[in-house]
Amino acid sequence: MILTESELSDPTNGEHCMIKAPRHSNQPVALSSFVGRKQEIARAKRALSVGRLLTLVGEGGIGKTRLAQRVAKNMQRSFGDGVWVVELANLTDPALLACAVATAFGIGDLSLGSVEHAVRDHLTDKQALLVLDQCDNLLGSSADLVERVLAAAPGVRVVATARLPLEAQDERVIRVPPLSLPSVQALRQREVLDRELLFGYESTRLLTERAGGALVGPGLTPDEVFDAVQVCQQLEGVPLAIEMAAARLRTMSLCQLNERLNGRLRVFTNEGRAVTAQHTAVRASIGWSYDLCAPAEQLLWSRLSVFAPGFDLEAAQDVCSGDGIERDAVPELLIRLEERAVLRRQRGDAPGRTRFHVAHQVRRHGGERLSASGEQRGLRARHLHWYTRLCERAAADWFGPMQREWHDRVRIEYPNIRLALQLCVSDREYTRDGLRLAGSLWFLWTVLGRLTEGKYWLDELLRLDTEPSLARGRALWVRGWINAQLRDEQGSATDAAECGVIAGFLGDRRLSADSLHMSGRSALYRGELGSAATLCKQAWEVYSRQANVDGIAAMSLVLQGLAACMSDDLDLADSAAALCLDMGSERREEYVRSWGTGLLGFVHWRRGDNGRSASLLRKSMHAKRTLRDLHGLTVVGEFLAWLLVSEGCCAEAVHLFGALDRLQSRTRSPLVGSERFLSYHDNAIGTARDAMGEAAFTASLASTGGLAPLEALDRALYGESTHLPTRKQAGTPWAPLTLRERQVAELVSRGLPNRIIAETLRIAARTAEGHVEHILVKLGFNSRAQIAAWAVEQRRRLDLRTRG
Questions:
Q1: pLDDT single digits (tens) 330-368
Q2: 84 forms bridges with which residues in the sheet?
Q3: Are 306 and 383 within 8 A, CB to CB?
Q4: Could you give the CA distance from residue 741 to residue 724 in angstroms, rounded to a whole number?
Q5: Second label for 80, Cα 20 to 30 Å away, from 479, 540, 648, 664?
Q6: d(C-alpha 211, C-alpha 245), whole Å
């Protein structure tokens, strides 16, 4: 299934509407002012008003990226479904292009179809602007993808940037010119050369703004103004070259800058290469900036080229220090490079973690220097090892309170992770490291829905390294999970079997448990419930004797419990769910606990305790929504839909079935491969259809088409049945809480902890904690502070009613 977080939460999803600002976007935050380009912006907006594909072309450093971002920012009010930027500078494999676009949109990939099909399907009814930045490595593939996307999505517009046009159908092309420059004639016609002249042209204004305090004073002399103009003329009005030159004005005068730049340009011009003047200006400015750096700054600049454009301080220290750079010196060196306009800080990506960005041309120059030094291969290896350790830490910490933090960090760092994987595929010496890296990312591929790209990397790496090893065994286990979710049952079984063979060869009991676990998962998806329960039980017996029982081990319990519950062994399922909940609570994690809660809700439904079951299933769904565990959401959602039918809430159940159908897109959850699961599903559908009548059933099922999936799920959580809290009750103070939950909410609003609440109400502390969790789920809140504010508001509303 393919779905984005925006689709999950936006009740107006699918409508082509004009709103004040897009609700969703991944546009980067600009940390410096945007100068000029009014004519180009106007031309771009006109081009997009009459056409749907615009390509901004020009030399590197000419400002294509900033112009595209500015156009997108200025037009964002026209796109109700947002503006989305895909950076392609580091992408060289056409097979990953659609994956990069899907990632930018936040599309989770749990589908049997291609990712490109999923992107087109997602955008079909959207009004969005897609920016494909730096398509140079993938011109043909980008053109093909854009043509198919635009054919499928009439509300989508595309802005691409590249040195050359995409040559796509109905493409409109704007060649981005240099910034405007004062001509010699204009200089001669002015009686006085002053600051007004500098602000009258784009290039000189950019130089002035980027120089900052260096050009601030009571006034510039005519000679200084002339020098400023000559600097911009020598640099051909190229923004990147001007920005780097402006950084030099902190340490030299305009006259010195003009003279030295003239000498640098003569050197580059005399090289005799067949390049444009703008290209020469960029190379000269960047090369000069490099030469003026101290040796340690030069060394760091070159080493930073192994990163994707973005990186954080911790990574820079680990990868770039040593052999001439002390680790503790890296922060100061980064500051100096920032002052020289070699890099800039980023904000908004990772709260509490400073990140830096290096422009493509600047990074490219650093890469050339690094290659010439003979250090490049070693630095790329250090980069690989750093991100391998990072992902292994994420995998180790996943079963704990840092799940969401690691999810966000891995998402932000994924361009660097992809670079590391590319090295492992291109250089056989590092293939084994690639297996470690790809295997550690099991949670990214499977839980967070990047199945296709995960399978791509694992296929490549497993093809290159066929020797039995722990890394290969773990990678086979992860690919087996991916294959199972993609309904490649034979592939999953084959991977599990080879994983078991390697485990026996190495004598590794943990890997043996992984093999049993995967075999059990495959059996469950095939509907072999007895075999699935036995295999997962055997896996758990091995896992439980290990020193560190992690989330992977706990998932074998979940699968064992699901198989047991569907084969009527409710005591075993209950026991498995309880163990999952205990482990999840002890580790303060959410993923396994959400599965344990959902499994326990399923058990209670099978036992006829629908009230307790409904509460648990809602709680599980709430947690899975927060975690973006869409596969889990479809499974637990099915359980809740069956319960609703058994309660006679057929209309609500059908709404939920409709939402689940959208969640599952063109295929059902892999668990539906179980014949027993399918029988529950089909029986519930049949019962609802018989109870409602064909016309009402069809209308109710179709009614979810105008709702976001989570809006439909909310109807199930707070539907119109007397058995469940309803949205109609929401206008009544304290609805939809029970009397006891209202009492707990009141005490929470007084700032009392759970222990004191329990003592006040004479209930167990764990019961009080459960009431608080139920309140959070029912009200859709995430904190006690929200409960407190809500309780105060209910008291105020009740007072008003009483007075009225």
A1: 999 999 999 888 998 876 455 567 889 998 889 999 999
A2: 130
A3: yes
A4: 14
A5: 664
A6: 9
